[in-house]
Amino acid sequence: MLEIDRIDAGYGRAQVLRGLSLRISPGEILCLLGRNGAGKTTTMKAIMGLLPLTGGQVRLDGQVISELPAHRVAGAGIGYIPQGRRLFSELTVAQNLEIGLRVKNSGPEVLEGVLELFPRLRERMGQRAQTLSGGEQQMLATARALCVEPRYLLLDEPTEGLQPSMIEAIRQVVVVMRDRGVGVLLVEQRVDAVLSVADRVAFIENGRNLETVAADDLRRDHSVIERHLGV
């Protein structure tokens, strides 16, 4: 289990997260919803060790990982697809994927498994990342994270700016990973996208927990979404 236990974090003197707690189980998709500025991206960075905690802990199967540098958090089994993708734009598709493989010194069988999920990337292995379409770049960012062989996967706004066919392709991969026992923490603004994949939805505001609700309940009754998000 990935446990985020009462964490505090922020930027300089600006505190963003205030005692935030989340639990993600293997084979579960937990979606994080909140208004702009609620602390969703900050939560992702804090889990990955990209932002130091000022309180609380992040634990993976009972082991504290919040004191580890970011590369060791990835090596422990957490893949991260940040908002904006953060690809190495001058490198080829193959080189970007190789960077992911090096985290655990994974072999060609891991790469082959990832390319089975993203056949379009197989056709573009020699192409530089910056020349890909937006949807293909999102595929590459996701594929690179999967090369880490993650036990948990963090996705920050993966459908932003994508056309419907690309959104569906990313959604299918997320569901496949869930079915393979990977726990997923998804930050997503599109409520329809959240409800199409989520098992549970955690609402946050001003870096604090509001409530966590089963997605099935939200599909039947949107009043909780309207109350917290105003949509």
From TrEMBL:
Keywords: Amino-acid transport, ATP-binding, Nucleotide-binding, Transport
An example molecular function term from Gene Ontology annotations: ATP hydrolysis activity
Gene3D superfamilies reported for this sequence: P-loop containing nucleotide triphosphate hydrolases
InterPro entries in the cross-refs: AAA+_ATPase (IPR003593), ABC_transporter-like_ATP-bd (IPR003439), BCAA_Transport_ATP-bd_LivF (IPR052156), P-loop_NTPase (IPR027417)
Domain ABC transporter residues, every copy: 2-231
Pfam families associated with the record: ABC_tran (PF00005)
PROSITE patterns: ABC_TRANSPORTER_2
Signal peptide coordinates: none
Lineage top rank: taxon: Bacteria
Alphabetical GO biological process terms: L-amino acid transport
PANTHER family in alphabetical order: HIGH-AFFINITY BRANCHED-CHAIN AMINO ACID TRANSPORT ATP-BINDING PROTEIN (PTHR43820:SF5), HIGH-AFFINITY BRANCHED-CHAIN AMINO ACID TRANSPORT ATP-BINDING PROTEIN LIVF (PTHR43820)
Family: Belongs to the ABC transporter superfamily.
Name used for this protein in its record: ABC transporter ATP-binding protein
Organism of this sequence: Seohaeicola zhoushanensis
